[in-house]
Amino acid sequence: MLRGIDHIVIAVPDLAAAGKSYAALGFTVVPGGRHPVGTHNALIAFGDGSYVELIAFYENNPAHKWWAPLQAGGGLVDFCMQTDDLRGDTEAFRKAGVSIDDPAPLSRVRPDGYQLRWVLSIPRGAHRGVAPFLIQDETPREERVPRETTHPNGVTGIGTVTVAVPDVPPVARWYAEVLRRPGRDLERPEIDAAGVRFAVGSHTLDFVAPRGSAGPLTEWLVARGASPYAATFRGPTPGTLDPANTLGARLTLVA
Questions:
Q1: What are the helix (H) ranges across 182-242?
Q2: Which whole-number Å values give the CA distances from 21 to 25, 34, 136, 244, in the listed order?
Q3: DSSP 156-181
Q4: Which of 71, 113, 209, 211 ranks highest by number of CB atoms within 10 Å?
Q5: Strands 2-11 and 239-240
Q6: Using CA atoms, how far apart are residues 199 and 208, in angstroms rounded to an integer?
Q7: pTM for this one?
Q8: Which domain holds residue 203?
Q9: Exposed, middle or buried, 110 (CB in 10 Å: 0-12/13-18/19+)?
Q10: Domain count, the chain
Q11: How far apart, in whole angstroms, are the C-alpha atoms of residue 7 and residue 24?
Q12: DSSP state of 70
């Protein structure tokens, strides 16, 4: 069963610079380590158990799923869901119509030398970034997620991830089948969009399509295709985070 958002992924061109930018926004940024696929990361962990992964490439890897989105501008590129049944949820997405790989191992070496190991199921092609990638830890999750979960800006967790899609009903059917319950119709007039919302644990996922032939979502879909568009964080003071410091990610604080 899906338990909620594990983390969201923000692709950046320079990891050290990104860490400084997010620290300037009031986040506690913790070095993550290196993956054996040419990426390294820094993490922003929250009290609700979710986190932000800032990820960059320490060597070129055009075959990596986040390489092309980074070349297109980076920012928010993907999201991962926690599961207590990786194989079962992988098969559920597959039966619902999602093209998704079988679970495969990956690892990361922290700066202190500790090797983290987990297993991922990753959607393929156009389904990537609309369906989540799924994770199940082999080493303890509390070793993967930083223990530093308080931030000067007061953010306590992830609220909503908004995903832009050209057509909502097929995506709504995926999630309704996997979660075994329908989503809730919603309007998003601030981006001239409509779609469906699913609550998963303490988080929500909005899948929205443009209502007209012009507007920010239409432009996004032309430039980036169906993919994560924005995210909210829960914090004491509502407002939009400066995109100059978020490095292209649309991030908003909500009470």
A1: 216-224
A2: 7, 20, 30, 8
A3: -EEEEEEEE-S-HHHHHHHHHHHHTS
A4: 209
A5: unpaired
A6: 15
A7: 0.97
A8: 157-254
A9: middle
A10: 2
A11: 21
A12: H
Residue in the block written with tokens 């001239």: 192
231: CATH: 3.10.180.10
**Residue 244 CB coordination number (10 Å):** 9
Is 113 in the same domain as 235?
A: no
Same domain, 112 and 14: yes
**Which uninterrupted H or E stretch holds 141?**
helix 141-144
- Determine the residue type at 108: R
List the chain pLDDT tens, one digit each, 255 residues: 999 999 999 999 999 999 999 999 999 999 999 999 999 999 999 999 999 999 999 999 999 999 999 999 999 999 999 999 999 999 999 999 999 999 999 999 999 999 999 999 999 999 999 999 999 999 999 999 999 999 999 999 999 999 999 999 999 999 999 999 999 999 999 999 999 999 999 999 999 999 988 889 999 999 999 999 999 999 999 999 999 999 999 999 998
Two structure tokens written together for 233:
């964080």
User: 113: Cβ–Cβ under 8 A, 6 or more apart, which residues?
Assistant: none
Same domain, yes or no: 37 and 134: yes
The set of residues, in sequence order, having a beta carbon less than 8 Å from that of 180 and lying 6+ positions away, is none
Q: 242 is written with which tokens?
A: 């400066």
